[in-house]
């Protein structure tokens, strides 16, 4: 049973987030770091994950360990601010979600931990840093409302500059939404000259894209895809998982993998430095990357698992059929402030005209 609790006015206003109190626990089938038996059976998790993923993972975790978990759900930007503000006395035990490019700059807030279940992780998705455990890989995508799109062609980023779509596109704020920031990085790489994300051509595209938003910005990552599914917008910039879930539920939406190229971003989890329940946090991470849970993520939700042998939904396009872009993982890390500030300046300029 989940009980909703507001995170705080400053978070709710920006990200429309809520904190969910959920009962939780761990797998008998996977290896686990275990615990000393001295910790209380409680765990506080900060996460940007959508409700469907939270429900699937948390329910199973409770049934197998009896650990009661407090879930604080918000955008990554807000969660990282909260971790920073609380570093002298952390309230969170684990951060669950967000790409490595968002977590690496906050290394000092994270505890070293490598799960014994890393043995089943696919190459390219391993915890090479010693503190970031990947639990899925997600591409940035476009979502379109099939009832509203009509004859408008949308195959990629270039099509989002169509005047017929002005004011009908929704994108979240990259300053507070991890998925929105990932999309900005994706478009910079895809539209930049010779793949240069900081080229004049890249930023010229972003400027034109922002002008076609006509001032529309979603209050959170979920507001973007929900807004399209509910018919408030024709097109949205989001990530793959929730679109696949909406399609499976019969919503009038379609997923578009940008023809100019798609970046796949891993989502990672980490133990918070100074956590009050570190053993429970480690057990949760072990659970998330167990093959059984990874298989459930892949087959029951629109999530691409990173464990060998885990299945995926039939609604997902095979990665071999998607034009992919290989990014320099450190570029979004080293240039986050610049990218967010430049995007915000362009948005403000567009609003003033």
From TrEMBL:
Q: Which InterPro entries does the record associate with it?
A: Ferric-bd (IPR026045), SBP (IPR006059)
Top-level lineage group: Bacteria
MF annotations from Gene Ontology:
thiamine binding; thiamine pyrophosphate binding
State if Signal is listed as a keyword. Answer: yes
Per UniProt, which keywords does this protein have?
Signal
Q: For this entry, list what GO says about its biological process.
A: thiamine transport
User: Is Calcium one of the keywords?
Assistant: no
The name on file for this protein is Extracellular solute-binding protein
Source organism (scientific name) = Breznakiella homolactica
């Amino acid at each position: 049973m989940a009980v909703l609790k507001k995170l705080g006015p400053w978070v709710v206003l920006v990200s429309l987030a809520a904190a969910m109190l959920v009962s939780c626990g761990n797998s008998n089938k996977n290896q686990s770091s275990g615990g000393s038996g001295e910790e209380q059976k409680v765990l506080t998790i900060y996460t940007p994950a959508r409700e469907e993923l939270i429900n699937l993972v948390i329910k199973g975790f409770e049934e197998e360990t009896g650990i009661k978990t407090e879930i604080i759900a918000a955008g990554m930007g807000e969660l990282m601010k909260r971790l920073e503000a609380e570093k002298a006395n952390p309230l969170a035990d684990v951060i669950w979600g967000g790409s490595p490019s968002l977590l690496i700059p906050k290394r000092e807030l994270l505890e070293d931990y490598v799960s014994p279940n890393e043995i089943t992780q696919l190459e390219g998705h391993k915890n090479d840093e010693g503190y970031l455990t990947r639990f899925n890989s997600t591409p940035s995508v476009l979502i379109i409302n099939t009832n509203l799109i009509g004859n408008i062609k949308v195959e990629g980023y270039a099509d989002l500059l169509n005047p017929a779509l002005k004011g009908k596109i929704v994108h979240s704020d990259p300053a507070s939404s991890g998925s929105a920031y990932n999309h900005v990085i994706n478009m910079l790489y895809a539209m930049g000259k010779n793949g240069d994300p900081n080229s004049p051509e890249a930023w010229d595209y972003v400027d034109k894209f922002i002008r076609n938003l006509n001032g529309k910005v979603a209050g959170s990552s979920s507001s973007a895809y929900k807004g399209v599914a509910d018919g408030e917008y024709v097109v949205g910039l989001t990530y793959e998982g929730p679109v696949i879930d909406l399609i499976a539920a019969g919503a009038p939406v379609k997923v578009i993998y940008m023809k100019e190229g798609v970046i796949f971003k891993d989502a990672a989890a980490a133990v918070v430095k100074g956590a009050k329940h570190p053993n429970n946090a480690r057990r949760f991470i072990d659970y998330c990357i167990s093959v059984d849970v990874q298989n459930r993520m892949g087959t029951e939700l629109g999530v691409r698992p990173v464990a060998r042998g885990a299945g995926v939904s039939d609604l997902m396009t095979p990665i071999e059929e998607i034009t992919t872009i290989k990014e320099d993982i450190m570029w979004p890390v080293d240039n986050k402030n610049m990218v967010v500030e430049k995007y915000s300046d362009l948005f403000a300029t567009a609003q003033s005209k």
